[in-house]
Amino acid sequence: MKSRTLLLALVAFIKASGDLGLFDGVQKSTSLVAAAEVSATEPAVAAESFEFQAEVNRLMDIIINSLYKTKEIFLREVISNASDALDKLRFMAVSDKTALAEGDDELRIRISADKEARTITIADTGVGMTRQELIANLGTVAKSGTTNFVEALGETGDLSLIGQFGVGFYSVYLVADKVQVVSKHAGDKQYIWESTADSTFTVREDPRGDTLGRGTEIVLHLKEDADEFLEETRLADLIHRYSEFITFPIYQQREVSKEVGADDDEEKVSLDEEGDEEEEEEEEEEDAAAEDEPKGKTKTVKVKEWQRVNESTAIWARASKDVTDAEYQSFYKAISKDYSDALTWTHFKAEGDVEFKSILFIPSAAAFDHYNKYYESPAGLKLYVRKVLIKDDFEDLLPRYLNFVRGVVDSDALPLNVSRETLQQHKALQVIGKKLVRKTLDVLKKMSEESIKASEEKAKDAEEKKDGEEADGQDLDDKEDKYIKFWDEFGRNIKMGVIEDIANRSKLLKLLRFKTSKSNGKWTSLQEYVSRMKDFQKNIFYVSGENMAAVEKSPFAEKLKAKDIEIIYITDPTDEYCVQHATTFEDKKIVAASKEGIKIGDEDDKRVKALDKHYKAEYKPLTEYLKTLYDGKIAKVIVGQHGGTAPCLIVTPQYGYTANMERILKSQTFSDETVTARFSQRSMEINPRHPIVAKLNTLVGDSKDKESAEAEDLAWLLYDTAMAASGFTMEDAGSFSSRMYRVLGQTLKVESLDLLPEAEPDEEEEEAEEEKAVDAEPDLDELYAQFQSGQQPVLDEEEEETGTDEL
């Protein structure tokens, strides 16, 4: 909130400053400024000191302390600006060949650190800046040199350039207390801009003359707490992280060890920092020739040399047809830190309102803690703007259920606003996010359709083999099926998508996979299920349970199986939540077979109505008795027509929880009363054709037997077994076992379940047997003495037999 307030204040201040013309007329004075930091041997040069009429100190405080979260991003900002300057020069050189006339022909960036001077230097061979551009671009907050450049070349230029120097430049003051910018523009003199982030900055002509040829060199004088950035490895890590895919080569000056002749001068050994490739090749040839000569004494010296850091290329900027599979896999491993190959990927360029390039990868395996961190792990997308990394794992582009996706997004349409680190929500981001979701689902859809097609061909082959014909179709095993492999790893993510993403639910439903009563243990899709539905079938039926054995033996499946109707098996807790949100598929309702009053579709309504009326009258005594007995346990007792062989079942209303869902909810730590209140809405459905039900109906119909304990025990046993068979948790195991023992006693004609009297053993006889056993034991001391004297130990006949048996 504080950062947002400060940001709004900054925006308001800049707007007001522009309206008042505070930056239009800067006051300037002339003073002599020593050039010691640039060159200790050069004389002092007259420099102009500029004072802002605006509160620059306040603006710097906002920028440095509020908008940037980490100090390390200063290097990313400076490299980005250098890349922009090189881009601008390259564009100008297309129409003006003289743009490259001065300075180095190579367009590159160089970075070096000096531990003694405590400075970091970043140099580019870009377009450079004139004296006036230094004043305008570096002396005005939120002013961009490239903005002016784009305005001048608006009709023919590259409008995607985002800025030579903007607010991002000021991030250097996160690590530096003084900054010097040396710049040389073609056809102009070389100037030095210098500031300590106070209310003034100076601009002077460089007393050294033209040392750059062309381009810009930034020297950062580090603060006391920024020494970490003087380390070569630290700088290299930052370049790799943020600027790995910059178009232009980035060189870092590194200290290396070299073997040289004992008499050689170390200065002669060092590579010329400004030398060209031809000179290096000549040196290599000389070294090769020297290998044939006799070797004398050598010594190891430390020398400085330039090494390229950003070897990787931004393959997303190339056409997909020009990128090999090996390059894709190598790139995937580089950005994901995964040792396995990607399962598949999509490489595309989006055009329209928002243009961007992207490569999205689907991993072949989930991390070991993938689902444990589902709500913590964002999608592994790296967001780039013109190949400059803005943010790792950018979570606003893809929804949580697609957090397994890895890849890159590079857009020129995103504004960097005040800070790349706190990139604000922008309309372009929303457009990009929608397109990324669509592309990801398209990739999964393609794999899914290929899987279904292969499955259909395999089924066709099986039929042909059965008929004796030769099969030519593809025999695709689940292990070879890409989509099944994906489903085994990330199937729960798709189920979570069905729950969370209403807009794409219809697409996600086609990606679901289930095992069914007809799939022979293989995964099948809802499309395949619907294609196999009976003509009379109106609904998609499923049975849920704790494991596959439970659902396969579920009594609710008996009637459906008898009519050869396919049943979806649900055992994953996520499935229960999923089917609650996915109530229909292709105009077919998805219905739990355990729901009250389900209809298959082939019923004779007239006959069903007549039977219902008949059985209600016949079993009125039993239904009334059980309803009174089970008061508080169930909502009602009904005569049902679920069929099957079970005497009764516990069913739930249309919008009630299934038994499996109740089990899942009970296992949760924070289950409230509003949830558990729906548990009491169960109904008992008795089977009017079952002999136990018929016998119990007769038993309770007799006024004498109605009050008997036997009838009550049988009724409660009926309830407990129905609960267990229907998948519910037994509520009172103690009472159930007591009733079960009583019924077993009655079956075995046991007069009483009271314990029998305790046995009375003969204590004197026991004592005599113990004494006899002691006497039979051998004298170990005597045996040991015999052994020590060299005699053969002698055992009694009985003892010898005992000892032999023991051995």
TrEMBL record:
Pfam families per the UniProt record, alphabetical: HATPase_c, HSP90
UniProt KW ATP-binding keyword: yes
Histidine kinase/HSP90-like ATPase domain segment(s): 70-226
Binding positions (ATP): 77, 81, 124, 129, 137, 143-145, 164-169, 216, 420
Localization annotation: Cytoplasm
Domain of life of the native organism: Eukaryota
One GO location term (cellular component): cytoplasm
Ranges annotated as biased composition (Basic and acidic residues): 292-301, 454-468
Biased composition (Acidic residues): 262-291, 757-782, 795-807
Signal sequence range: 1-18
Principal cellular location given in the protein's record: cytoplasm
Region: Disordered, residue numbers: 257-301, 454-475, 757-807
Molecular functions (GO terms): ATP binding; ATP hydrolysis activity; ATP-dependent protein folding chaperone; unfolded protein binding
SMART domains: HATPase_c
Keywords: ATP-binding, Chaperone, Cytoplasm, Nucleotide-binding, Signal
Family indicated by similarity: Belongs to the heat shock protein 90 family.
Protein name in the entry: Hsp90 protein-domain-containing protein
Lineage of origin: Eukaryota, Sar, Stramenopiles, Ochrophyta, PX clade
